[in-house]
Design brief:
CATH superfamily: Peptide deformylase
Number of domains: 1
CATH architecture: Alpha-Beta Complex
Helix content: 25-40%
Largest sheet: 5 strands, antiparallel
Strand content: 25-35%
Shape: globular
Number of helices: 5
Order of helices and strands: EHEEHEEEEEHHEH
Number of strands: 9
Distance between the termini: 23 Å
Amino acid sequence: MILPIVAYGDPVLKKKAVEIDKDYPKLEVLIANMYETMYGAYGVGLAAPQIGLAVRMFLVDTEPFAEDESFSEEEAAELKTFKKTFINPIILEEDGDEWAFNEGCLSIPDVREDVFRQPRIKIQYQDKDFNTHVEEYDGLIARVIQHEYDHIEGVLFTDKLSSFKKRLLKGKLQNISKGKIKVDYRMRFPAMSRKR
């Protein structure tokens, strides 16, 4: 089932999410719904706060990036097959010289900006069966994970922009929070939530 994606301005996007355990209600259904929601919005990552749940879970599928011809065959092959669900993740290390990449977010449609992040990460997480893993990633996969991880920390990519950039985007962000934007996927806007 495709769920509505929470828009910029909703307080759930600024909350630090809480851990879950294997007794979390209907977890398999939730994960399946999150993948369906992400694919329905042409995303490469989706965090639980983006569907209104302040829990430490996100999923990533970088296959759409594999079509980009700027990647080597090896990089493209890795991007094409990278699909994971991260539960209760903790980024243990980030290292390397920061690099810029133009990021967007399903909760902030039609806004794309260069964000600086470190290229390598080490992350500990649990899979859908609650087995614990510690893995290292770099490049674009690391960046997508960092972006989604920020969501469960209550951080949006716009928080990482300069105060000048934030001022330039202020009107656009206000319009998104009021639902004054056209998107081709289901969204839930803060203005609508308050009316209930």
